[in-house]
Amino acid sequence: MKIDDAEWFELQFNPELALTKYGIALPSLPSDEVQLGFTALSGRQNLLQAFSFYQYIQSACGMGNVADPHILDFGGGWGRISRFFLKDTKPEHIYIAETMEYAISCLRTSGNACRVVHNQPAPPSWA
User: Fold this and answer.
1) SS3 of 93, please?
2) What is the model's pLDDT at position 91?
């Protein structure tokens, strides 16, 4: 499915339209307070920064030429970057790896349908 980047960005603030028009279930956004705690940005500015990175990855990886991409968002936080890949592949092909329990809780609360991998840091070898 082809969705213009400008429209896709705006759909992040209108998940009902994304679902009815394109059949894509977008996760909700966490509160401004939560967003600020992760990136010192919130709302439109926060997603603009994430969207810029998403566009870079699309270009650098030639995503337009990949039939069914699988995405790994390592240290994905509350999912601010991974959400943009929902137009490129199925949620079950997007993996969000995270160590912080709080971030995983935010992902679950948002209704994010991506696969969440809770990385448990290994204890030091001398312990």
Assistant:
1) helix
2) 97
Burial of 65 (0-12, 13-18, 19+ CB in 10 A): exposed
Please state the domain count of the chain.
1
Which residue is associated with the tokens 């401004």? 32
DSSP state of 115: E
Asked if the structure places residue 123 within a domain, the reply is no
Q: Judge contact between 68 and 98, C-beta under 8 A.
A: no
Q: Can you give the CATH number for the domain in which 50 is found?
A: 3.40.50
Dihedral, CA atoms, 85, 75, 72, 79, nearest 10 degrees?
-20
Residue 97 phi/psi, 5° resolution? -95, 130
pLDDT tens for residues 54-105? 999 999 999 989 999 999 999 999 999 999 999 999 999 999 999 999 999 9
